[in-house]
Amino acid sequence: MAAHAKDAAAPADVSAPSASPKGEVELQLADDALDGAPARTPGGEERRDLAKRQKSLTIGAVCKALAQEFPDISISKIRYLEDQKLLTPRRTPGGYRLYTQGDVARLRTILRMQRDEFLPLRVIRQELAAGRGGAGAAGPDMPPVPGRSARDPGRMWRASVSVRAATGALYSMDDVLEETKAEAKLVRELEEYGVVKGELRGGVRYFDETEREIIAAVAELARYGVGGRNLRVFRSSADREANLLQQILAPALRSRNPDRRKEAVEALENLAAVATHLKHLLLIRDLRKIVR
């Protein structure tokens, strides 16, 4: 909490990014001051050390650098991703976060996967572990193609969410409320409308990882006045899509041949990715009509 307060109180001139090399040097000198180290004049070993660190950015500077591509980016959102172990910026002795260019590239990849591919944090974590946030990640001028696998570029459509068995992790109501910041009344409303079901064990209701993320998404919608009763349209749409995909692959999914069934599951995930992307495009098309 103390580190968070310090980030929020960081001077504006330290957080503001600069497009000029001089501005970057000034930013790093300010970082040195935050570290408690005296500002140094570039020269010899000190110049090399300064050149190595001068591209580090404060959390406020990262927000400003990404705001054009991601208008809803915020300091609290970056902190949340850090809390979820998706980002690990270095800390100064004073507790301030400093982000390298690699950290910023990783954050950009995470935000694009959320925005363009609707991936939950669990899947994003798997993608990053598989190397997607590394050298192979899309650069700032090359947005990723939705549905294209970073591990197998020849496979155009990949699953945005695996339909295979989940990790088995369960979260109590208290855990879900704490992590998602949702209200208990909202969760009960979601149960009432069949959006989430949970599992009762020993008198305590537990939710799996997917349902926890559903609750987190609904909690965000609730900030705009969207209630559980408004979500029936999402639930009905998801049910119809699932039934359609089931009809397409039903014979293969019921096969007793394990290889054929495995192929059917992979095809189901690919079809789900295509359907998700198509739905996204249709939504964007209609929303553009609204803002004209």
Outline:
The protein has 292 residues and is mainly alpha-helical. The protein has helices at residues 2-8, 12-15, 21-35, 44-53, 59-66, 75-83, 101-117, 121-129, 173-180, 184-192, 209-222, 232-253, 258-291; strands spanning 90-91, 97-98, 170-172, 199-201, 204-208. The strands form 2 sheets. The protein has a 3-stranded antiparallel sheet with strand order 3-5-4. A two-stranded antiparallel sheet has the order 1-2.
Please name the defining characteristics of this protein.
Multidrug-efflux Transporter Regulator, Chain: A, Domain 2; three-stranded antiparallel sheet; 13 helices; 5 strands
How would you explain this protein's 3D organization?
This protein is mainly α. It folds into 2 domains: 98 residues, no CATH class; 122 residues, Orthogonal Bundle (Multidrug-efflux Transporter Regulator, Chain: A, Domain 2), CATH 1.10.1660. 57% of the residues lie in helices and 5% in strands. The strands form 2 sheets. Strands 3-5-4 form a 3-stranded antiparallel β-sheet. A hairpin with a 5-residue loop joins strand 1 and strand 2. Helix 12 packs antiparallel against helix 13. The radius of gyration is 23 Å and the shape is globular. The two termini are 43 Å apart. The N terminus is likely disordered.
